[in-house]
Structures are given as C-alpha cells and as structure tokens.
Amino acid sequence: MSHAASPSQGPASGPDVSRNEYMTDTRPIAEGEAGPGCRKRDPIVVADNVTRSFGGINAVDVEHLEIPRHKITALIGPNGAGKTTLFNLLTGFDTPNSGKWQFEGKDLAGVSSYKVARMGMVRTFQLTKVMGKLTVMENMRLGASAQPGEKLRNALFQGIWGSREKEITSHAEGLLTKFKLDTKRDDYAASLSGGQRKLLEMARSLMVNPKLVMLDEPMAGVNPALTQSLLDHIKNLKAEGMTVLFVEHDMHMVRHIADWVVVMAEGKIVAEGPPAEVMKDQAVIDAYLGAHHDVDLGTSGGVKALEQELAQDEESIVGTQDAGIIAPESVLGDAETLRVDAPKTERGADTRKEEGK
Ligand SMILES: Nc1ncnc2c1ncn2[C@@H]1O[C@H](COP(=O)(O)OP(=O)(O)OP(=O)(O)O)[C@@H](O)[C@H]1O
C-alpha cells in the first residue's frame, strides 16, 4: 500500500484520499492463520525472542511478534502480563535481557528512546508525562525536540532557527486546534483535567510526525465526556496513515476501534486475531478470568454470566464494582467502560504506578 499522505496532514488540509484508503482496507492482516506470533502481510514492527526479567519474574518473554502497518492493534492482558514492559523495551525506555526487534526494517536494539522517537515510533505513558509547570504550548514545543531544527548547533544559524521556530509553532497550533486545546495554549499543563492531559500527550507525540503511535492505557482516568473524543482521535491517526498500538483494559474500546488484538499473559503472547475472534478464545478467557472460564467476553451476555458466577464466589474480588473492575451493564449504558483486570494486590501494581510508571 502506498504511503499517500504525510501523517501531519489532517482532515483539515483538504480532501483526504488516505482516509478512505486506510479505513476501508479489508485485506486480511495475517499472512496465514491468525494465532500467537503469526506473520503479517505488512508488518511495521517485528520482534524476536525479546525477554526481560525482574528478579525471578519473566515480565516479558516474547518469541515472535509482528505489528501490522496502518492498523490499530490493541495489546491486552491481565495486570502484570508484561504489556507496559514490552512498550518500554520496544521504545528504548528499558533494556531487554535478550532479543532483537526492527521498526520499518531497522534494528532498534540498543537505540535510545530519543532516537527511536526521531525515527517515527512514539509512545505515551499510563501516567501522563506532561510538564505541569510548563504551558500547553511549551509542552508541545518540547515534543518537537526530536526534530533536527531544535539541535543547538542549528540555533547558531539565526535564519534556519527562525523559520524552524515558526514551523514548530504553526505545527503545534494546528495540532492544538485539532485536539481542541487551542484555547488552553497559554495555561499551565497542571491546570488541565486528566483527560485533557492525555490529549495533550497524544498531541505532543505527533509533533515528530510519527509513523507508529503507541498509547499506554489512553482511556485510564479519562472523564466519560472525553472518551468519544479520544476514540475519534485514535481513529483519525489511522485515517491519516499512522499505525497505532495501544494497551487497554477497556474491552468496549478494544472491540470498538481495534483491527487486531494481541493478548499477553505472564510475559508471553497467548493469542492474536480480530477482536471478535480473540475475545472468544479460550486462552484469552483463561488468562483474564482464571477459573471462571465458561464465559464469552465478546458478548454482553457473557459479562452478565460472569457477574452471576462471580457473585457466588467469595474469594474473587473481580466483579465488585467498588474495585472498579466490572460495572454491571445497568451502570455502563452505551458508552461504558468495561474493565477486566486481575486483582491489583496480587503483585503490588498500585504501589509501582504511584511511583510514576
Ligand atoms: N521496574 C520493575 N521492577 C520490578 N518488577 C517490575 C518492574 N516493572 C515491571 N515489573 C514486573 O513485571 C511484570 C510485568 O509488569 P507490567 O507493568 O509490564 O505489566 P502490565 O501488563 O503492563 O500490567 P498493567 O496492566 O497493570 O499495567 C509484573 O510482575 C511487574 O510487577
């Protein structure tokens, strides 16, 4: 498939043929049968034997993984499955014990996170890393620092610097307008809501015109009023020719926007395929639900069945709405959030997140 449009061009820049091209491509994503580690027709990332352990825990143990280009791939799995660690490894924020991986055919092992971003592979974090004491615009400008125009030596050449400055500012303004943050451009990022900070982080990551955008739990902590807008922005990334890989516990979001789903459990890829197929997969149900395996996650009936099953299980905290894990359908409505998590207390995940994961 041709790369018809620069990722920076949005729908505002005129008729967007790529929108149709990328959104309507129904060719199979896998080369053969879907399954863990299956080959893709057009992969943008290919990883082999990537492992990372912490003490005795094999946090990531991925034999083979390919991420399909121009598609939205969801990376799902219970708490502690290794999703964020895999993100960290692929983007140079952590170093694996072994393995190699390529982005657009280029080896990335040993490449710093800064260079990875400059090559077009950017990521956001579960807890946003926007700078609270900088304004929204200053945060955006920081996002451009992976571009050559921001290098110090270029600053010595006033002409280049001046035009580059204008270019960066105008690019930032365009993105802020698109993300409806333009009225906040001079506000401190600390004054934004959680959802607006997620939008800002996403907008900032686009300052380098990435080819692959990796979002770690984009919906976590987002007010329902902003949920639809975030979903639309993610779909737009694909329409504009970008590839998206996102980690998410919100199964409705996964079913709604993902073209492909990769499931991790205990560091390994245990299932892969189109959302509707994967959520019926026994390995996925087992990974999420342990003993509660007679339930189909792909249907709302399945959720009801699970709730009933859990209501009779005194040992399980899954399904107790107070824990924020599964809300009954009566509470969810249409644009609901359905979280399917393993109990956090199993591995002290909460503590780590508070430390700035
Ligand atoms: N810096 C670290 N030090 C020690 N253990 C870690 C560290 N980072 C991750 N782990 C462990 O590695 C495993 C995988 O964690 P990871 O955060 O990647 O899982 P996850 O699938 O992203 O979970 P969640 O859905 O809760 O975000 C867990 O057992 C976790 O406790």
Description:
Residues 1-11 have a biased composition (Polar residues). InterPro entries: AAA+_ATPase, ABC_AA/LPS_Transport, ABC_transporter-like_ATP-bd, ABC_transporter-like_CS, BCA_ABC_TP_C, P-loop_NTPase. This is ABC transporter domain-containing protein. Residues 1-21, 336-357 are annotated as: Disordered. The protein is of the alpha/beta class and 357 residues long. It folds into two domains: 11-130 and 192-291, P-loop containing nucleotide triphosphate hydrolases (Rossmann fold); 136-191, no CATH class. It is 34% helix and 17% strand. It has helices at 17-23, 83-90, 113-118, 136-143, 152-155, 158-178, 194-205, 224-239, 251-257, 275-278, 282-289, 300-311, 329-332, 349-354, and strands at residues 43-54, 57-68, 72-76, 98-103, 106-107, 121-123, 212-216, 243-247, 260-265, 268-273. It has a six-stranded mixed sheet, with helices on both faces. The radius of gyration is 21 Å and the shape is globular. It starts with 16 loop residues before the first helix and ends with a helix. Bound molecules: adenosine-5'-triphosphate. Residues 54, 57, 59, 77, 79-85, 347, 349 line the site of adenosine-5'-triphosphate.
Characteristic terms for this protein:
357 residues, alpha/beta, Rossmann fold, 2 domains, six-stranded mixed sheet, four-stranded antiparallel sheet, 10 strands, 17% strand, globular, disordered C terminus, binds adenosine-5'-triphosphate
